[in-house]
Specification:
NAD-dependent succinate-semialdehyde dehydrogenase, Ald_DH_C, oxidoreductase, succinate-semialdehyde dehydrogenase (NAD+) activity, binds adenosine-5'-diphosphate, globular, Ald_DH/histidinol_DH, alpha/beta
Length: 483
């Protein structure tokens, strides 16, 4: 399908309670192509009143949805998964257009993002409780699970489909209704998903999708509304802290997938070929715009020079360009601000003594491209070792011995993902257990998996998505006392 035809066919109104409605009082806001900076289209901007209507619909639909047989909810999810796959080309092109990632990666996200619907279709029918006796013999204990209730999902732009489906699918599987506020940069993918769910037979009211360029105007009143029971957020730690404070006023259930600062630790005994493949994947997937992206490379000094040289070659060879072009491996960053922040972290590291071995500059011309960059000899005081770069920049620093490698990995307030390369099994397990993060990859650069619990510790968040754990975020536990 031609890009113009695709854009013309994508819903651009609000998705309110199961149908598309045109912009109300909020007008519209533009969506940009980060590869050119040009406006792709405009999307309706949801107001606080739209938010209230969406929550009206979610609250009204909640009892019926919770009472809908799990098998029926599962089959809607399963149908939606099939429909996403039937429209793979449209979803992939749309993500490349509004987010910029290379088309091959967009196809990867269609598969990965779609999988949450299939996975949670399978989990929906396995929500179990238990029956036991009080130790005193005085009574019986019945434990059951119930949906939390209407939930608000706030999602980021970096995975326009998967960050939605990873929340929507477990919510629906558990029997919760949901209002989604997608990132203003990438609302089109989520709006198309709304259409998919309608086609899959989702009852009206269960899902609303409200794009807006003014997030707080829409969501602040929702946090104050007693009908909302749950907030699930993926985004920065700074915004997550604000939303946690807002949630506190009504003791909302929260799931928070926040920032990361993933260490990639290469021990002296590592298989360097494997480590280089893993490093490239962990750094460059999604052009570095992933919260699990390797942010800092801690390499044992025994192999540091070789790793740096060979990684530099690999980074230099990557093809940069608009995501829909053949063979492109590195797309644009999402915005000029994002590119400026990447450039600033590079400048800071260089001013403190880091050495650029490749890249280190914006790509001239239109679009928000930044060269794949390797910084060697990065000193401890460089900001890039502490802050998430969210771009195609690898900072390499050395250490001596296992204890120093672990200490370096843990020197951060974040704790989302960590990557370890070693061929020593004892060391791999020892280090994996000592690393302070919710997820650890051993000799693997890509760890996300629909069947595994995704989430962080420390300031990287609360709760887990996906896996068999993911549905728990949308369930309450009820104890029923029996004689
Ligand atoms: P990123 O750096 O990935 O854009 P943010 O944390 O700024 O991360 O944004 C993630 C999501 O949170 C986006 O959908 C954004 O619109 C939303 N958001 C940002 N600020 C607020 C806020 N004050 N209230 C509610 N949502 C917000």
């Amino acid at each position: 399908r031609e890009r113009a035809d695709l854009l013309a066919a994508v819903p651009r109104g609000l998705w309110l309670g199961g149908e598309q409605v045109p912009a109300t009082g909020g007008g519209a806001f533009p969506v940009h192509d980060p590869a050119t900076g040009a406006v792709l289209t405009e999307v309706a901007d949801a107001t606080a009143a739209d938010g209230a209507h969406a929550l009206d619909a979610a609250a009204a639909a909640q009892p019926g949805w919770a009472a809908t047989p799990a098998r029926q909810r599962a089959e809607i999810l399963r149908r939606a998964w099939e429909l996403i796959n039937a429209r793979r080309d449209d979803f992939a092109m749309l993500m490349t257009l509004e987010m910029g990632k290379p088309l091959a990666e967009s196809y990867g996200e269609v598969t990965y993002g779609g999988e949450f619907l299939r996975w949670f279709a399978e989990e929906a029918v396995r929500i179990n409780g238990r029956y036991t006796h009080s130790p005193s013999g005085a009574g019986r204990i019945l434990v059951t699970k119930q949906p939390v209730g209407p939930a608000l999902a706030i999602t980021p732009w970096n995975f326009p489909l998967a960050m939605g489906t990873r929340k929507i699918a477990p919510a629906f599987a558990a029997g919760c209704t949901m209002v989604v506020k997608p990132a203003a940069e990438t609302p089109l993918t989520m709006l198309l998903l709304g259409e998919i769910f309608a086609e899959a037979g989702l009852p009206s009211g269960v899902l609303s999708i409200l794009p807006t360029a003014r997030a707080a105007r829409l969501t602040d009143p929702l946090f104050a509304d007693a009908r909302l029971r749950k907030v699930t957020f993926t985004g920065s730690t700074a915004i997550g802290k604000i939303l946690l404070a807002q949630s506190a006023s009504r003791v909302l259930r929260t799931s928070m997938e926040l920032g990361g600062n993933a260490p990639f630790v290469v021990f002296a005994d590592a298989d360097l070929d494997a480590a280089l493949d893993g490093a490239l994947a962990a750094k460059m997937r999604n052009t570095g715009e992933a919260c699990t992206a390797a942010n800092r490379f801690h390499v044992d000094n025994a192999v540091r020079a070789e790793f740096t040289d060979r990684f530099t070659e690999r980074m230099r060879a990557l093809k940069i360009g608009a995501g829909h072009l053949d063979g492109v491996q590195v797309g644009p960053l999402i915005s000029e601000e994002q590119r400026d922040s990447v450039a600033e972290l590079v400048a800071d590291a260089v001013s403190k003594g880091a050495r650029i071995t490749t890249g280190g500059a914006r790509v001239s011309g239109s679009g928000y491209f930044y060269e794949p960059t390797v910084l060697a000899d990065v000193p401890a005081e460089a900001r890039i070792l502490r802050e998430e770069v969210f771009g195609p920049v690898a900072a390499i620093t050395g250490f001596d011995g296992e204890a120093a490698g672990v200490a370096a990995a843990n020197a951060t307030e974040f704790g989302l993902a960590a990557y370890i390369y070693t061929t020593d099994l004892d060391r791999a397990l020892r280090v994996a257990e000592s690393v302070e993060s919710g997820m650890v990859g051993i000799n693997r650069g890509i760890i996300s998996d629909v069947a595994a619990p995704f989430g962080g510790i420390k300031e990287s968040g609360l709760g887990r998505e996906a896996g068999s754990e993911g549905i728990e975020e949308y369930l309450e536990t009820k104890y029923i006392a029996l004689p």
